[in-house]
Amino acid sequence: MAALLLSGRAPLGQIAFASQDEGNSDIFLYDLDTLQLENLTHSPEADYDPVWSPDGREIVFTSYRNGNAELYVAPVDCRLSDCDAGAARLTLAIGLDILPEWQPDGARLAFVSDRDGDQEIYLLDLACVSRPAGCANSVRNLTRNSTHDASPVWSPDGQRIAFESLRDGNPEIYSMDADGGSARRLTQHPASDRSPLWSPDGQHIAFLSERDGNTEIYLMEADGSSVQRLTYDRLLDRGFVWSPDSREIAYTSQHEGPAHIRLLDVQRGITVRLIHPFTFSEAPAWRP
Question: Which domains does the chain have, with CATH numbers?
Fold first, then answer.
């Protein structure tokens, strides 16, 4: 089915995602062209939220392997025990560090943490991680808001970050400068709007919304205008990712029962099922 939908176009590459299909949440790789599935990590503790580095050589992810949710990074060419042994821890704090997003130039990570008592969006300078003495300001709170802020995602030029927030009493999509300034609201609806994702060409932001009574994927212009619904599945759609050319979106769905990954042609509105059902699967990440 995937080959039928995508015939006549360039190779698609790989996606990474987290699944409990092997009994514990691990990171998997799926080749969209050969349809081969590979288990990348095999830690006794949960690994999830995989995100590719801009050069496609590393994956940053969240793991409980040291008893607390922290951010780790591992090279993609590792396999199984080598990935687990070679994974480097990037954060160390009381509280949860989750949902990492790599800046397009590879210099910094945006992520979510409750280390100060509520969920905020933070910035991690990766150059500081590699220095023996670190940096005084290696981690910085960008939002400093008393309510829930989450799901940061970079604009392709690295100048702005889109995110979800409860600061106006309802889950809505906002964007701000990369230093946390000039925040502005992009959606305004009584239903929940969350999990924004900028298209690689910078023209659109896809997001999840319950405005039609079910969690579906929606699309809007980067300034918040021209909102349209993309998926029409009878059960939940959630974690999703753009293809590098902004033509497709891979997402996790329960359209046919157990969670599985589907592929949506954004222009034509056609979806196909890519991967068999998993015990749990979330947030696929497309290799650059």
Answer: 40-141 (2.120.10.30)
